[in-house]
């Protein structure tokens, strides 16, 4: 978090692909080059088993890239995601678009670049980009030029429009969990149903 404190507001792209999604070494290299080529500072949380190839997990790349990245960003093994997304320095999130990450990003008011891999991630990514308009959908494309283009769009040319949408979604999310909000009422109703046994 100390590194984020030294960055300008909304200037950093946070990158994390969750706890299950994996990528090949080539995909990883394309993402890294795209991030570096974008010229935008980034914080990338890379768990040890993210990168796999024909020989199984490959964790040596983390040390290699840590050495090559200091002028452009920061690579860490883990980051407190909700705290990172809430930080003023973070202006966007490159994600696998898992449901928890999607909700955390929307609640924090941060636009997303989605690279979905499995399960519900394709649907989540489509909702983020086409329904809620709070991010961009990379689909399954993993080329450095595409990564660079999308990062620049998120952090520069499309920033204002995406921020308007994400800030509105974040406002609605906060209202829903306040006392009297829709989520608050639904939780109270669930608790009441459990107490009286009407949920059976």
Automatic annotation (TrEMBL):
Keywords: Glycosyltransferase, Transferase
Classification via PROSITE patterns: UDPGT (PS00375)
Pfam families in the cross-refs: UDPGT
Molecular-function annotations in GO: quercetin 3-O-glucosyltransferase activity; quercetin 7-O-glucosyltransferase activity
Domain of life: Eukaryota
Stated family: Belongs to the UDP-glycosyltransferase family.
Name assigned to this protein: UDP-glycosyltransferase 85A7
Organism in which the protein naturally occurs: Striga hermonthica (Purple witchweed)
